Amino acid sequence: MASVPVSPSLPSFLFFFFLLLSPALSQQQASKSRKERAGSGETGSGSGGGGESSSAAAVVPQLNCSGRWIHIRRLPARFNLDLLTNCSEYDLFYDFCPYLSNHGLGPKTHNRSHSWYRTDPFLLELTFHRRMLEYPCLTQDPGQAAAVYLPYYAAIDSLRYLYGPEVNNSMDHGLELFEFLQENDGWIWGRNSGLDHFLVLARPAWDFSQPPDLDPPIWGTSFLELPEFYNLTALVVEERLWPWQEQAVPYLTSFHPPSGELLDSWINRVEASRRTTLMLFAGGGGVSAQANIRRSIRNECENTSDTFESNGGWYYYSKVCDIVDCANGKCEHDPILYMRPMLQSTFCLQPPGDTPTRRSTFDAIIAGCIPVFFEDQSARTQYRWHLPEEAYGEFAVHIQKEDVVYKGLKILDVLMGISRARVRRMRQKVIELIPRVVYRKHGSSSSKGWKGQKDAFDIAIDGALEKIRSRVKGEVEIGDLSSV
C-alpha cells in the first residue's frame, strides 16, 4: 500500500512530523534496522521486520523477536497528524500548539537543558507513536505480528466532541476509524476480531465511557463503550474499575533523558538532595468551604508548626508542610515550579481531584519524594505494570481520605510515625522506580549506560504484548505484570 499523502491543510511547522510519523517511513526504519543488525551478525527470530533496539534501556545481548513482532497499521493522516492542525481551534480548551515541538516533548525548559522539557501530558499519543517507530521488532507483515499498533490520536480527536461542534454526536467517536479498518485490509482486524490491536489514549478512560444510547449525552465520548472496540486493548493514563479493555500507563512528565548517563546524573542529584520539608502538596483546589481531602490538607498545612517532637527526638525542618499552588494549570508546563520543592521534600501528598490519578505522582517519584495516596485508585490498582502492587507499601504511604476528612486523623501524625530508617528505605525504593516511570527521549538508540533498565515505554509494550497474548488465547487476564 502506498504511503498516505500529506494533507494540503498540514502547516509547514508540522511537515517534519509527517515525515517521521508516516507509516511508510516506519517500515523503512524497520528495514534499515534489519540490515544494520545483519551486518553486525545479530539476528532475530522470524522474518519480515525488526531491528536493533532503539531503546538502549531495553537492549539485550541477543535480540529475540519471537512473539514480539508488532505491525504499525497504516492510517490516513486524518486519524493522527491532521488532528494536530487543530491545536488552537477549541476556545474552551487551551492552545497546545507550543508543545508540539520535539515530537510532542515540547520546548526545552532552557537552551542548555538536555533532559527537561515543557511537556504537555495530553500529547502522550504523539510521543508514543514516535517511539514506536524505534521499536526493534517491527514487521511489515501483519500476519507475522503478535500485535497491531493503531497510531490513532483518539484523545486529540475527542476534542471536537468534548469542546467542538460535534458535542452532540459524541456517541459516534471511533466509528470512522472502525469503518476504515473494515474496508481497508479488513482481514487484519478480522483474523482475531481486534483482540491483537492496541492504541494509546492520553486521557482517563472515563472520558471515553459515555453509554452510546444516553440521551441527552453527558461528559465524554463513547469510544470505549462501542461494541466494535470491546476487543481493543487501550493503554490509558487512568483506567476504570473494570479494565477488560484498558491498562493504565504513566503520565508524560517533563523529564526525558536521552542517555543512561544523564539519567544516572539526575538520580545522583536526587539521592544527594537535602530534604528540608516534611510533606508537600503541589496542586490546586481545596479553597472552598466544602469538606474534601484537598481542603483538609490545606487546613493542616496552615495550622502546623515547623518544629515538633516524634520518636523520642526533635526533628527540625525549614517547613513541615509546603504547598505549591498549581491552580489554573500554572504548573502544567513549568517543571521548575514544583520540581525544586519536591526535591527538598520527604513526602509528596497525592490527593485525588476530578479523577483519582495525578501526573504529580510521577513527578514526585522522579524527585525521589515518597508519594502519599488517599485512595487505592490513585495508583495501587492503576499502574500495576510500572509500580509493582505487591511492593506498594515499600515505596508509598496510604492514608484513607475519609479518616482525614471526617474523623480528624492528622496526616502529620501518620508520617511522623514512620521511623527514619524506614523513610530511608522507602526513598531508596522510590529512586529505584525512576527509570520505570520515565519516557526517555526518542532517537537515542546509540546512547550507552542504561544498564539493561527499561523505561515506561518499554514496560508498556511488554505489558501490552502479554495482555494481548492472553486475550487472544482466551485466558484469564493477567493483572500483575510488574516483573516486565
UniProtKB/TrEMBL annotation:
Signal peptide: 1-26
Domain Exostosin GT47: 65-406
GO molecular function, one term: glycosyltransferase activity
Gly residues bias (residue ranges): 41-52
Region (Disordered): 30-55
Entry keywords, A to Z: Glycosyltransferase, Golgi apparatus, Signal, Signal-anchor, Transferase, Transmembrane
InterPro entries according to UniProt: Exostosin, Exostosin_GT47
Keyword Glycosyltransferase in record: yes
Compartments reported by the entry: Golgi apparatus membrane
Membrane-related topology note: Single-pass type II membrane protein
Predominant location: Golgi
CC per GO annotation: Golgi membrane
Pfam families: Exostosin_GT47
Top-level lineage group: Eukaryota
Annotated transmembrane regions: none
Family label: Belongs to the glycosyltransferase 47 family.
PANTHER family: EXOSTOSIN HEPARAN SULFATE GLYCOSYLTRANSFERASE -RELATED, XYLOGLUCAN GALACTOSYLTRANSFERASE GT19-RELATED
Protein name according to UniProt: Exostosin GT47 domain-containing protein
